[in-house]
Amino acid sequence: MTDSLVLAFVIGVAFGFTLERAGLADAPKLARQFYLTDLTVFKVMFSALVTAMLGLFWLGRLGVVDVSAIYVPETFMAPQFLGGLVFGLGFVACGLCPGTSCVSAATGRLDGVAVIGGLFAGVVAMGFAVPAIAPFFTSGARGTFTIPDALHLPYGVVVFAVTLMALGGFMVAERIEARA
Amino acid sequence: MSTANIRTGRALAIIALMLGAAAPFAGSPYRSARGQVDVAGLAGMIAREEDHVTALELATWIHDRKSGLRIIDVREPAEFAAYQIPTAENVPLSQFRRLSVKPEETVVLYSGGGAHAAQAWVFIRAMGHRQVFFLASGLNEWIDEVMNPVASTPITRYFGGVARPEGSTSPSASTTADKVKQLRRRGC
What we know:
Strand order of the largest sheet of chain A: 1-2
CATH superfamily of the largest domain in chain B: Rhodanese-like domain
Oligomer: heterodimer
Strand order of the largest sheet of chain B: 1-5-4-2-3
Number of domains of chain B: 2
Number of strands of chain B: 5
């Protein structure tokens, strides 16, 4: 238990450091994502996703990591769709998401501190609201599935497709940024 | 962006592309075959007895050269070598994760008694294959019903079996029975 907490702390610090180095502690920079003038968020997040995907796939294939032991959150269609919208609205309104708000606050930005305050208030309010909205909260349960499960495609094919999507996305992002 | 940054970015993109392009040919990253069990669905099939075939049904399928029929003996290689159902292949339970089944194949599993084949049936169902059955009472049933039945039938003669001697309750009259005598006592 302690070991995993220490590990989580180390990974968390590394995550925060990387976000800050990528310039994601700055709310105006993040907001420019939505005006399509600075696509750093897209590029950083999609790079992280592809790196993790390729790393886990190959480490799993080489027998270093047990891929089946990785926790896959359950899917609830409508609640997660609504949750995504709320998340997006908050992101647009604040220019920060949960991870970047912590980085922003840690680098001394007051807007980051304000967003963290709002985030915790929202978490507490949500906790109290759960009993009242429980039927919706648990509706549309689909169990756990991954993209390869949902599309009935081999894991490796999905890995290649996502890699191509990422590289294509980066090229388009660079073009958009050059134009802006 | 500086030239060095562009160069690093390109190099990383090429590495990602190579790793991604090789992924479809690398097989599954999971250590063993993953499966999902539709508990209610399987329970229903078991209740309706759609999960197994009788020895006589299997014998008829072999005789008729049923298309796509694949008979799998899940016992250990030594037991398989001593006696097996004609046309069967040997895939011991320990090797099951390497088993690949084509959609057009009809798989019939058997073991000495029937328990191990029934367990293997759940594995294959969990791997998503639908046309799969097991021999309910295993090789014992094959011996009793096909190789040494109470009364000889064309199917018995087709497989080189003989009917039991008059009044005998156990199939001991043939060499087939001798061959599997030790297997019969072991069950599973």
